[in-house]
Each structure stands twice: as structure tokens, then as C-alpha cells.
Amino acid sequence: MMDSETQKPKTGDAAPPEAVVKPKGVLSLLGRLSLLAIVAVATLMAVVLGIPDDNDYARATLLKHDRLSTLPGKKIVLVGGSNLSYGMDSTLIERETGCPAVNMGLNGYFGVRYLMREVADDVKPGDIIVIAFEWDSFGKPIDGSGKDLYAIVKTNPAAIAYLTPQQIGEAVSAIPFVAQSKLLRIGNQAARGELFKPKGDNLLDQLIEVESFKSFAPTGDLIGHKGVAWTGDIEEGTKLYQTGVDPTVVPAIKAYAKQMEAKGVHVVMSYTPTMRHYYEANKTQIDSVHTALTTGPDAVKAPRPPSDYVFDESLFFDTVYHLKAETRHLRVQQVVGDLRTTLKDAATCSKPN
Fold first, then answer.
1. What domain of life (predicted)?
2. Helix (H, G, I), strand (E, B), or coil: what is residue 216?
3. How far, in whole angstroms, is CA 141 from its chain's centroid?
């Protein structure tokens, strides 16, 4: 008798039953896995879309883009993050220059690339772009935060046109994080018995109320902090003396300014208002950005150094960049002065009142 190791089936013999792979079983498994994936994605999207955001601040992008695309004639477009949202009075700019203005400032976490790109298609020869990024923008990724990019595309699907393929990938990758954050927020509120309670007067509720869509003027300025006394901590900026300056940001701004100038659009840097102690701590890095921007054949127009935009703490609201509503006029005086110094007669659209 031959032992089992030497026995071989003759040609044509059927394979042992255990060696037969049943296609039906594989297809059934793949079907179940596909169904499971569909359910998981559907659940994820139900959480992301079904649970409301903390507030509707991002909806202001719709108001801003509508104004940007419909303003007739020459206009002034303010490009940057929340320092503009909180710290600009566009009506006063219009009064001083005769030019209609639109404040596009919303969230620095969208990244420098997005903030510049989102206005590029709606400016025309003769228009003026005023750039004012928070100093954080020079230490954070130029492509922005995936979760914030997702939030703006969710609010305004047309915004996907302003994103690179890499940014789109980062936005999609952030969806699980967004869902987790919402579930944690709802869970914490339920644990504290606050899920169905009306908003109170605590600092978080106060900030949510300030940063709401109804707090925006038609020009794109946030005015919800007018008359509000902030008693919470002041949010600090990025510690540039630790992180350093992202070497890609300044070249991107220079390239953008060159592109816009070739289109006949004026570009002027008028820096973010900055609390004195923050500027002093990050002076070396901040001043190096100004030097890099204003030197070389591709220099950007920036008539005054960052130190001219430093203010005392008493003028700020809740961060080292957000001016109080009552002190915005000081910043407007600087912006208008920057435009007149740099652009001369081109800084106005008609005789100021």
C-alpha cells in the first residue's frame, strides 16, 4: 500500500471536496462586505449631515461670495482670515474711498492658498485686493485644515472649485474626525443634561451667538461682538518662534500678487492687527516675513511694516488678532492710508464724502 504522501490523483480525477473554492461563497462574502461598507459610510454621513454644527458662522461665505460676484464697477476686496471678519468696517472704507467693498475674511484655517484662490475669478482690472493674513497663516500648512475645508464645501459646494486635488483629499479624509467630534459634543451635552436646554450666558454660548450668520453685515463684516464685553481668556496665536515660518507661504503670496497684477488688479498687503505682547514674542519671525515679501523683483506692495499694526490689549476682543467692534475704525484708517500711499489716485473710485 502506498502512503498518503506518495499517492497522486490520476489525470482527470476530481479534486478533493475541500480544495474546491465555491464562487458563490466568495461573492456572498464580497456582497456582505460591500453592504457593510455602504452602511458604515451612510451612518457616517448621517452623523455629519444630520447633527448640526456648533453654529452657522460658515454660512457667511454665501453672503460674501454673492456680494463679491455681483458688485458693479471697481471694488475693494479684503482677503484674509477672521482678523478681517472681526476687525474691519467696510462701510467706513467705502465712505473714505468711494469704492464698494466686500470683506471676504472668515477663517484662517482654510489656508492661504484657498483664501487667495476663492476671489481670483471674481476680480477684474482696476479692482483692489487687500491681503491681511493672521501671522498664524505663515506658520500653518498653506493648504489649510481638512476639517475646515470640508466645512466650507459642505456649506458652499461651489467652493470645491477653489481646492486642489490634495485639498479635496484632505477634506474627505477629515469626515470621520468631523463625525467623531459631533458625537462627542452631543454625548457631552447629554451627560451634562444640556442637550435640550436653551443656550445660556456662559462664554461658549456667548461666542457661538457672536459667531453666527445673523451677526454679519451685508458687506461681510462681523458685527455681532458690538457692545459685547468678552470676559474669557484671550486666544493666543501660533508661536512662530517655535514653529518657524513655512517657506512656501511667502512665494505663494508673491506669485498670486504677480498673477493678479498681470490681470490689472492691484494687490496691497495691509497686515493683521496684532496684540503687542504677541508681536514682541514673535518679532524676529514676523519681521522676516515682511522683509521677504517686500524684497526682490517680485516684491509685494506693503507700505508699512508689521510693527505699525501693533495695538494695545485693551483694543482687542477675544484673540490676539480680533479687534473689538468699537476699535475697528483705527484699523480702517491704516488700510485707507496704505491704499492711498501705494495706489495714489487709483485708491479711490470717486471723491470721498
1. Bacteria
2. strand
3. 11
144 Rama sector, left if φ>0, alpha if ψ -120 to 50, beta otherwise: left
Q: What is the pLDDT of residue 4?
A: 43
pLDDT tens digits for 200-258?
A: 567 777 788 888 999 999 999 999 999 999 999 999 999 999 999 999 999 999 999 99
pLDDT digits (tens, 9 = 90+) for 27-39: 676 766 666 656 6
Residues 86, 278 contacting (CB under 8 angstroms): no
Quote the pTM value.
0.82
Residues 6+ apart with CB under 8 A from 10: none
* Per-residue confidence (pLDDT) for residue 56, from 0 to 100: 83
- In angstroms, the CA 90 to CA 254 distance is 25
* Alpha carbon of residue 83 to chain centroid: 12
Instruction: Give the integer Cα–Cα distance in Å for 257 and 273.
Output: 21
Let me know: does 101 contact 90? Beta carbons within 8 Å: yes
Q: Which domains does the chain have, with CATH numbers?
A: 57-144+213-346 (3.40.50.1110)
Cβ 178 vs Cβ 170: under 8 Å: no
